[in-house]
Amino acid sequence: MRAVPAFQTSPGMRDILPPESARWRRLNAVFASVAASAGYGQLITPLLEDLGVFARLGEGGEGVSKEMYQFADKGGRDVALRPEVTASVCRAFAEHRPTTPWKVWYTGPNFRYEKPQRGRFRQFDQVGVEVLGVDDAQLDVEVIALADEFFRALGLQRIRLIVNSLGEPDDRARYVNALRDHFESSSAGLSTTSRETLQRNPLRVLDSKRAEDEAAIAAAPQIGEFHSPAAAEHFEAVQGGLRALEIDFEVEPKLVRGLDYYRRTIFEFQSDALDSAQNALGGGGRYDGLVEALGGPPTPGVGFALGLDRTLIACDEEGVFSSESERPDAFVVDVTGGLHATVITGELRAAGLVADRGFDNRSMKAQMKLANRSAAPSAVIVGEDEVAAGTVIVKPMDGGEQITIRRDELVAHLRARPTTT
RNA sequence: GUGGUCAUAGCUCAAUAGGUAGAGCACCAGGUUGUGAUCCUGGCGGUUGGGGGUUCAAGUCCCCUUGGCCACCCCA
After folding, report:
1. Distance between the alpha carbon (CA) of A95 and the C1' atom of B25, Å
2. CA→C1' distance for A207 and B17 (Å)
3. Nucleotide B37, nearest residue via CA and C1'
4. Is A269 found in the same domain as A365?
């Protein structure tokens, strides 16, 4: 026991210990189930990619690319730990050319070199789906509905869906110009921070929460005014689909997602249970030009990614999807040295039961404490008398009467007992 | 990257106006010799995140450093 550990996790990285890790596994299982129910297959991509795969995530080399873990490997290749998965999915599509529609889901860690705080880590896990090769607005609806269903499956109630459309690439370009003109006009008094943001990306000025920017943002032109007929129709169809599924949503013209590849539909899921600045659980949208930018054929794409950390924090706040220890079906207490426990746990495990046991030939009292702590419904007790008689004692840990049974009846006996709570 | 704030046993915290650290929980062991969760008793456990300074004396004051948290930035 040292006061000072020799090592600790690097900033923004952390260990996830049991039972919390089991909760992560269950969360992934829920997501996998939701995605599979809609015909999505899992895609596993490398955590490490050529730097160029992620080069288009930010305009002018700003944004995500500035936060990337990038380095030259021993072969001199410029590589990076993935800051997100969408670009990798598009790279995989361009590389393997699967038939469309290509519907995939994924889970795993991503890396961004940011200042850590609650709900924001340098290594953070996301789950998500992406679909390539379909232009239909009803696919946007399906994708959004999957995220909505996922949150529902976890038991989350206080989720808010916000949608917007950035229009076609030309619409977006014209809107950006109009925004720049608006904010640069002398009548709009912006904060100095927002003026800097304006130089990099006028869209992001809309994200400002600073009071002094409020008036200028309120007076800014709205993206809707710049939608081409096709973009407006697409956005209308998305909203119609959401209404048909009775999924609540708000249209937020000021919603702009951080990544620059988005076109047309974008959306974000926020939790009202999180009042911090990190209340966005995830989001996504269309990125119709991304595959082409990565060397593939022109291919429409849409998808989303959800942050596991923030989703779990939201679950904590709402008191749902709680962390539970996994409990064995039986805990074997052996006071004859431990060999019988080895044999009995082996038999139980082979029979498909979850069995744990005490070690170090500890006292019966100590082993019973372990049995109690394991939350197993039954303790199986073996002493010299039982060994001599070819029996074991099965003791219900809820206070019921213990009974002595023959060794060869143990599996059947334990199976007959309900093992839940 | 900027600013603020915090850091005491495994966990949650306490320690009067600077005088060489305590509690609860947890863990371990006993409570007439084969049985847990309750109760009683006892025990283990901290050079007070790390380093330096002021002082007769620092957990308590000052500086540096590491890390958490909050806000900004950005975003999941």
Report:
1. 56
2. 50
3. A372
4. no
Vertex A302 angle, CA A300 and A307, to 5°: 150
Q: How far is the CA of A381 from the C1' of B39 (A)?
A: 25
Q: For residue A30, give the 3-state DSSP assignment.
A: helix
Q: What confidence tier does A2 reach under pLDDT thresholds 50, 70, 90?
A: very low
Q: Tokens for A51?
A: 């730097």
CA of A125, C1' of B7: distance in angstroms: 28
State whether A309 and A350 are in the same domain. Answer: no
Read off the pLDDT of residues A299-343 as tens digits, 9 standing for 90 and up.
Answer: 999 999 999 999 999 998 888 998 888 899 999 999 999 999 999
Residue A421 has pLDDT above 50, yes or no: no
Q: Supply the pLDDT for residue A390.
A: 95
- Residue at minimum CA to C1' distance from nucleotide B46: A3
pLDDT digits (tens, 9 = 90+) for A167-203: 988 898 898 888 888 887 755 567 777 777 777 778 8
ipTM over 0.90: no
Question: H or E stretch including A242?
Answer: helix A229-244
Listed as ranges, the nucleotides of chain B within 7 A of a protein C-beta are: 1-3, 9-10, 27-30, 34-37, 45-50, 66-76
pLDDT digits 0-9 by tens, A216-271: 787 888 899 999 999 999 999 999 999 999 999 999 988 888 777 888 999 999 99
Amino acid A201 reads: N
Supply the angle between the helices A137-154 and A308-318 in degrees, to the nearest 10. 50
Tally of CB atoms within 10 A around A349: 14
Pair A159, A85 in one domain: yes
Where in the sequence is the domain holding A138, given as residue range(s)?
20-168+227-318
- A26 inside domain: yes
